[in-house]
Amino acid sequence: MKIGIIGAGNIGSTLARKLVKAGHMVRIANSRGPETLVELAQETGARAVSAREAVQGVDVVILSIPFAKLPELKELIAGLPDEVVVADTSNYFPIRDGQIPAIDGGQVESLWVAEQLGHTVIKAWNNVLASVLAGKGQAEGAEGRLALSVAGDDQAAKHIVMSLVEDTGFDAIDGGPLAESWRQQPITRAYCSELQADQLHTALAVANRARAPQLREEMVKEFVALGDKITTEDIVRLHLAASAKG
């Protein structure tokens, strides 16, 4: 499959690495230009390109940039053919992204993203820490394999992304329509909790949206207080504690 990735941070670069290893043809772009991705391209086997080149002639586009930056991609994404699958890995954190009134007023994050981009999106890889994505994937059928949920309205597109999630080492489960994608976002029990498939199904079902924004901001403040000393274990611990209050 031909895949374009926009965003070469921890998630984007890990996806490039894993998807190339799985046999896909991957192009990767960032905001600074392909010349800044030479080492990553050599290491992963992905092809470093401009953002415009990353979306041309591909089957799937994966967006892995800060949430508030997504509207800047509308020119590139809105003109894509309907059959091109667009997957979004981002999450909204006001402390980083600034306040977005529509979302603060109740609009589901992924619906806002689709509206801004002018193209339907599939929500995936947003409920896993970069370190977990990089280091805890396992072969299909492995005991204790972790699961990730994938949400979207286009069933064919969703199944394509689910197959790619499987290729990155995780069981993929259907997270429902895009309007329900909040169930896999901060702060819910399905977010960054390292769950297996049956546990993740349960976590999605019991998700509580009402208190999530407040709990998210409280958790982020605790992250900030830990500073450079924060670990993956801290993030999981604080998130589980916050989501338990929801």
Structural class: alpha/beta
Average pLDDT? 91
The CATH homologous superfamily of the domain at 2-170 corresponds to: NAD(P)-binding Rossmann-like Domain
Poorly predicted regions are none
**CATH classification, class level of the domain at 2-170:** Alpha Beta
Order of strands, main sheet, comes to 3-2-1-4-5-6
Taking the sheet with the most strands, its summary is: 6 strands, parallel
Total number of helical segments?
12
- Fraction of residues in H or I helices: 40-55%
Radius of gyration: 17 Å
Query: What's the CATH architecture of the domain at 2-170?
Result: 3-Layer(aba) Sandwich
* Distance N to C terminus: 40 Å
The fraction of residues in strands falls at 5-15%
Architecture overview:
- With 246 residues, the chain is α/β, with parallel strands linked by helices.
- It has a domain at 2-170: Rossmann fold (3-Layer(aba) Sandwich).
- The protein contains twelve helices and eight strands.
- The strands form two sheets. It has a six-stranded parallel sheet.
- The protein is globular.
- The mean pLDDT is 91.
